[in-house]
Each structure stands twice: as structure tokens, then as C-alpha cells.
Design goal:
The chain is elongated. It has 9 helices and 3 strands; from the N terminus they run H-H-H-H-H-H-H-E-E-E-H-H. It is mainly α and 242 residues long. The protein has a 3-stranded antiparallel sheet with strand order 1-2-3.
């Protein structure tokens, strides 16, 4: 259990969370986290008014040693910061030692890169029936052949393509322009899209090469969403009905 002093602080913290209209999920998580701190501190005869930076660092180190992930430890630290911040605001302590404790670094997840065979399977799963299918086939053939990022793909205009020289003009980071060769498969997909797909999507005055179903320029989230859709279908072998 925890001491009487910690109990009083925890009750006040629960009222503070309610006053701030925190969601039920947030209140439960924060209260669970600060109760855990209160029990740890009580076992070491540390009261709310005298817990310090070194104590908090020991506490967080113990959480990590118990197998808590960096994300979980960071959440628990956020709850402790909120609790001690409330104490400062109420005049129960002069400063918040949790502000001097750094959150653990969270591991960055590396993006998964499709293997060549997976890319070929994905492309083969995209039929050439509707305007959107023609667009998606041209989009991913171009991305694969030229190694273009989503931001570069959506910035392309119709006049960025040069079929005579079999190349595309790409605006990269920092406004730098480069000419990238386009492979045969991508060129054929682009020709089919421009002949039958884009006219069905086109809105007046839009210069973008790749259009949404409403006729506007695609955004990066559109590209990533469509890639996820086709990747799932390629992996499952499901018919490509959208």
C-alpha cells in the first residue's frame, strides 16, 4: 500500500484529472501509474514532498529492468510529471523534479522494403480495368522503375513525362530537378493510363499526372494507402475488387 500523504495527493490528482475533463482511458492509465509510484516510494519511506530527481531516475530504471518497454516507461513518466506539476501549482512543493528526467528513447521502426519478387507479385495483382486500376498500375510501375518517393510521385505533372527520350523530370528535395530514365513496363503502363484512365478522372485545369477519383492531385497518404491495399491483396491472393 501507500502512505497517508501519498493517498491525499492521489485523491487530489484524481479530482484534477476530472476537472480537466480527461478521458476515462487517460484517467485510468494515469492513476494506475501514479499509484505504482506511490507504492514504490512508500516502501522506501519517500513522501510526495521530498521525492527528488535521483529517486525518480532509480524508479524509472527499475521499471526498465522489470521489462517495461521504453514507450510504457515514457507514459508512466508523463503521469508522474503531471502529478508533481499539480503539487507545484498547489504550493505543495517548489519545483517539479520529473521535468529534469529525460524520457527513454523509443526505438525507431525501420520501414519494411518489398523484395523484387514481392513487387512483381504486387504489380501483377493490379488489373487494368477501371481508371483507378490503370492509375495505380502506372503509379507503382513508375515508382518501382525510377525509385521515386511518394512526395516525388505526387509532384509530377503530365508534362513531366518525355516519351521520346523515355524519361521523367523529377522535382526533388531543395527544388533540385533531375531527369530519370523510365523503363519499358512503366512507359506502357503510363501510356494506357493517359489514354484511358486519366481522361475518366480528369477535372478541368488540373495538371497533375496522377489524379484521385475526384480529379485532384494525389497526396502522399493516398499513395501509401493504395500501396497497403494492393500489398494486402497480393499477400492474400484475394481478387482485386475495390
Amino acid at each position: 500500500m501507500y502512505s497517508t500523504q501519498w493517498g491525499a495527493v492521489l485523491e487530489e490528482f484524481a479530482r484534477e484529472l476530472a476537472r480537466r475533463a480527461a478521458s476515462t482511458k487517460t484517467r485510468i492509465a494515469y492513476q494506475t501509474d501514479v499509484v505504482q509510484l506511490a507504492r514504490w516510494a512508500t516502501a522506501r519511506e519517500l513522501e510526495p514532498a521530498n521525492i527528488g530527481v535521483r529517486d525518480l531516475r532509480r524508479y524509472l530504471a527499475g521499471l526498465s529492468e522489470q521489462g517495461n518497454t521504453p514507450t510504457t516507461v515514457a507514459r508512466k513518466l508523463a503521469a508522474v510529471r503531471a502529478l508533481l506539476r499539480m503539487q507545484v501549482q498547489l504550493g505543495q512543493r517548489r519545483e517539479n523534479p520529473a521535468e529534469l528526467v529525460s524520457s527513454p528513447k523509443r526505438p525507431r521502426r525501420l520501414p519494411r522494403v518489398l523484395k523484387p519478387g514481392e513487387v512483381e507479385t504486387l504489380l501483377d495483382r493490379i488489373p487494368a480495368g477501371s481508371a483507378l486500376e490503370l492509375r495505380d498500375r502506372a503509379l507503382f510501375e513508375l515508382a518501382y522503375a525510377c525509385g521515386l518517393r511518394a512526395e516525388e510521385l505526387i509532384s509530377l505533372d503530365v508534362d513531366s513525362l518525355d516519351f521520346d527520350s523515355e524519361a521523367v523530370r523529377v522535382e526533388g528535395k531543395g527544388g533540385k530537378t533531375r531527369i530519370v530514365p523510365v523503363g519499358e513496363h512503366a512507359l506502357r503502363a503510363l501510356e494506357r493510363y493517359l489514354a484511358s484512365g486519366r481522361p475518366a478522372l480528369e477535372s478541368q485545369g488540373e495538371s497533375a499526372l496522377l489524379l484521385s477519383k475526384s480529379g485532384r492531385r494525389l497526396c502522399t497518404s493516398d499513395v501509401r494507402r493504395r500501396l497497403r491495399v494492393w500489398a494486402r491483396r497480393a499477400a492474400s491472393g484475394a481478387p482485386a475488387l475495390i
